[in-house]
């Protein structure tokens, strides 16, 4: 790899860490009520939200009430998003006169945005009106991210509370995450993006008539360039690890991501809140070393896969090299030249490490190994660094599994943060691991044997299998990015991936909240000489090993049928 590639990756990780530490401390103060300046500025908005919703700020909920409120709120969001899409043809703020969205696409999109997946089986500028983009999709970008944040805070309370039946209030956590965290960050980022040329307007498309070339007899046809409220949606799509683009080509579009600086801002925004939450966790459990250990575990997995992706793309395509193409530029197929190979590869690993899914390059055009790393990052469970809240609560489940394995090794009841980890927590943890894995593998297998699944393929052989495997990995793990080359707007993929998104989101949230409730009811246990310290390099290694072992045993056979065998035959002809 080039020196520029090493410098870019090092700068990216350093900037991320520099921003994540203070943001993590601020988010902790938000949920402990100690963010005094923010409460003075935004407190009226918080209190207004409670009055409108009829919520008491001092209300406490059991984990079952918490889960019920969360599920009902998210179901309401699905219905609103579905209805706005179907009725957009007769609603205002539709300058292009777009008709209502077909039922199967509307269902898929409603589930996608409510579940923080933002899988897009449509072209944004040609399918969704301005009202739908703002009132349906952008609103869900905020509340779906805040939902994940609320679940994480509830789980942390399970560790910090003793002998209680309650884990907080979903409504209070949802409002505070939205008002004090996501709204201010999005406002700052949106203004920064507008300064770089990202459009923000309620106008419709503009028509441009290209100048005729010298000697051209016929006048060239005019072109329409879609506009809209883009910057406001892009800001929260990145900060909320949502990823759904205003335009069909997402962050490769010059009006959604016009400059190298806007590209850097968006890459940092993708991982910023998930990384910061590691330090929030340390502050809330009153042991910052615990948060640092989890951050380092994520980094130990993320950095090598990022380096591997960059190296694979910089190596270029051997088939093209054999034809005489200079390999020095790397594999530029499917990439924007204003970003190049390095920034495209870093983005690909960041967006799949997070539950984000936005893209600035076509993953379908990556080399086999360059596409394998982002795919496996999703299959690990979107925990490195994962979505807002969802990444860390997934990582915490793996931490419970790791201490349980350590306890089995020494014949001792495992403990984590002063709580004994027993059979109930392990049963719920296994559901968190198994649900998305089963959805990925069963969905891909079904697509392989049904004509409706294979008819949508853009490529045969191992690459076509990779397209299907990537699609279900993205949906079931609430990522939303697409490999490309697969037509997913038909009935089969719209419904199948929609169901995977539901299972991958809510099939995890309910067990996590059950774990939170079980932990909150337990008394604390003092640390002894036999207690495994969970802030040491030994524990970081154990946690990383557990994640990689589960990921390898679950998905290596499937990956061998796709990107691995494609790599072995890559350039053979």
Secondary structure layout:
Layout: H1 3-32, H2 36-53, H3 63-87, H4 103-114, H5 124-127, H6 130-160, H7 170-195, E1 206-208, E2 223-225, H8 230-239, H9 260-284, H10 288-314, H11 318-322, H12 340-353, H13 368-379, H14 390-410, E3 415-416, E4 419-420, H15 423-449, H16 451-454, H17 461-476, H18 491-521, H19 537-568
Antiparallel strand pairs: 1-2, 3-4
The major β-sheet equals: 2 strands, antiparallel
Distinct helical segment count: 19
Rg (CA only)? 23 Å
Strand content: under 5%
Keywords:
single chain; 573 residues; mainly alpha; two-stranded antiparallel sheet
Overview of this protein structure:
Helix content is about 65%, strand content about 0%. It has 19 helices and four strands. The two termini are about 25 Å apart. The chain is an all-alpha fold and about 575 residues long. It has a domain of about 180 residues. The model has no long low-confidence stretch (mean pLDDT about 90). A hairpin with a 2-residue loop joins strand 3 and strand 4. It has a two-stranded antiparallel ribbon with strand order 1-2. Strands 3-4 form a two-stranded antiparallel sheet.
